[in-house]
Each structure stands twice: as structure tokens, then as C-alpha cells.
Amino acid sequence: MLSHTLNPEPSRLIRSDGRPVGWAVSTAAVDYPAAVQAMEARAAAIAAGDAPELIWLLEHPPLYTAGVSSRDADLLDAGRFPVHRTGRGGQFTYHGPGQRVAYVMLDLNQRGRDVRAFVRGLEQWLVGSLAAFGVEAGVRDGRVGVWVERRGAGWSREDKIAAIGVKVRKWVSFHGISLNVEPDLGHFSGIVPCGIAEHGVTSLVDLGVPATMDEADAALKVSAGRIFGPLVPEPPPI
Which of 101, 108, 194, 213 is catalytic? Predict the structure, then answer.
């Protein structure tokens, strides 16, 4: 089986005070360094009690990011797109048009102080979002992210459809997830995505699901509400 049972323990991830999470969507591509600066500033304000929590949805121009566990050998084409070293967990990943990135700035002081439960919640968020399109997805022991199993006449394989890379500082999370809606999958060939060479990547459209970004956002919002609690619209931080 591709997926094992996911239990994100929502009772520990939803705030007991019911305070809603901001939900912001950027409609134009956002420069990566500017996004990171805004995200870190917001996370610091949340930790200080000066700002509410926020989930920020956006797209980036084509680029590669290198997490704290990245290996230089996994950058196969260093000159193809800009490469940004980042403090999130994980290895190399690609961001670009057609991929929905969600930066998740939550106060885990109010959500159980359990990083493993938080990551399970991110996994369940993605799995639930994909289920809205009839896509059966799951997680694999030893592999980060969310995967789908693909079958044909005499063959089967597992492809990654969503990535997870987070950082926690003062029990406030930042960075987050990326979901492949309709990116150029050829752009992933410049790296070994997440250090896993023996598997491929896919997207909703590649799976034959003609989803728009707005439709993906709607599914993400419904699933996020189940895992993290009530959401309220908010302007993007930049």
C-alpha cells in the first residue's frame, strides 16, 4: 500500500481558544528572498504576540531551493535557475509557476508543541486536498512529502505530487508545503528532488485532473480548516 493511516491529531492542532488563522493568497508571482523576509518577520511577530497566525499561498518564479540537508551533488544544473539556500528542513526542491506554495506560520505553543503532529497535520492537509479531486495520495516511511501510485499495463511507479519543508523557531512554524498543480515538470530535472533519484514527480494535470489554481486553493482551504481550525481572509504580507 502506498499510504499508511494518517492521524494528524486535530484536537492538538486546533487552538483551544478558537482564534482563526489568516488566509492570504498572492495573485502575482512573489520574489523568493522578499517572501522569506516577509515570512520570517511575520513568524517573529507571531512569537512576540504581535500578529495572528497566517497561511500564505503564492507562486514563485522558477527557482531551486536548498534545505539544510541538501547535498551539492543533487544540484544537477546549477546554471538553469537561481538557487537559494534556505533554513528549512529537507534537501533540494523546485518552485515555479503552476505550483502552489503555502507558507504556514502557526503558533505551536497553542497547538500542542508537537512538531511530529504538526508535520502529520501538513501531510493530512495535502492528502485531504487531493482527495477532493479524486486523487488517492499518501505518505511513505522514509520519504518526505506526499505520493501517488501510478499503474499501467505491466508497470507501476510512485511519483511525488507535494513537498513539505518546515522550520520552527520559538515554537512558531514557517516555510511549509508545495503542491504541483500544473508546473513544467521538466524543470525538476535540474535537481534530484528531495534527494530521491529513484522516483519521479507529477502534478494534478499530469494525472489527468484539469484543475485550476483557484480550484486547488479552494480544496486546500477546506482541508486546512479541518486540520488547523477556522480561517479568515487576510491581505498578503507583501
Answer: 194
